Amino acid sequence: MKELLPRERFIRTLRREPVDRVTTLYRMKHEAKEKIGRVFGVENTGTGLGHDPTLELRLGNDAIIYQIGINAEFSHRPIAIGETWYNHFGVGYGKSGLEGRTPEEFKEFMKTQEYWGPAKVVPENFPKSHPVTSMEALKNYKWPDPNDRRLLDPIKTLCDQYQKDYFIIVDLSSTLIEAAYAHIVGTQNFFLMTHDEPELIAGVLDGLTEYYTALGRNAIKEGADMIRVGDDVGAQQSMLLSPKSWRELAKPRFKFMFQEFKKENPDILFKFHSCGDYSPILPDEIELGAHVSGLMQPTGGLKDQEAIKRKFGGDIVLAGGFDVQRILPRGQVEDVRKGVFECFKNLAPGGGYVFCPSHYIMADVPIQNIMAMFEAQKDFGVYGKYPLN
Hints:
This protein is of the alpha/beta class.
């Protein structure tokens, strides 16, 4: 088959039609992106709301993901140890568990952050204060503006510049459950309040639904091809909440959102996201009309990739599956190549698969493993060639 344009390749993958090679969609945190950019001589390495897709397209991405959900700023923003930064939802963020590190300890820590070598511990940003912890706070809470041009204008720019050749995805995650537990009310509060104060949780979820429905419709007006929604509802061996609770709290709200998005554009497409094991709700994603499910972290019920492909691959495109917890940051180069090979062997036959790590490429991944992944993707991801004969 002749080489396809990236946009055509992505669309054919969504239709489970033959393609020349496995569709790819790399994402990375800003530290990793700067490290990879040094290899390719790419200096434009913005992430989050400042996302610059130059490097990802250089690596072979077939689509561009632009992030405007609650995660879009805090997880990519430099926040100093001891500092608290507040986003437009009124959530405060800082460095989790690092407030006690002395300047001398931090200086020693920074010596470990060299370019080459084994995986390093890198401090991450986390929510540390939450704006809604009572019914009174919810009544007085002001939701962000879904017409905020700071979020929307870049979508139109990306579409104008890239949509002829690349598929454009707008990311609204975390959307409901995670946005509530991790950001708006706090994790412990959320799981206690679902039982003790269900009216408060329902009010928060309704507010998030209203906000993201309006924001998503605006993103579609700007030209997005696909809307990405979802929440981290999976842990290592099971879901964080029962499938029954997810079906009560999230599923009807996502159904409403999808219906509203289709009013704006009947051809709009949907991608569902979760970390961890979300296998029990894969049938629900299909029932809701999702076109892509990811990121297939190989944990719990998602470990048996061949079985997942057999059972669901005809109904939904599967994305991800490559281990970012052990193999990518801590494996040897040959482990990385074998891991990529296994993903292709298990998930790519028959099409309908998007290769990507099962989360961002993080700061703790050594450059040699990153390059091994890129090379293995090129070596093993061609249809008509082993292992995709």
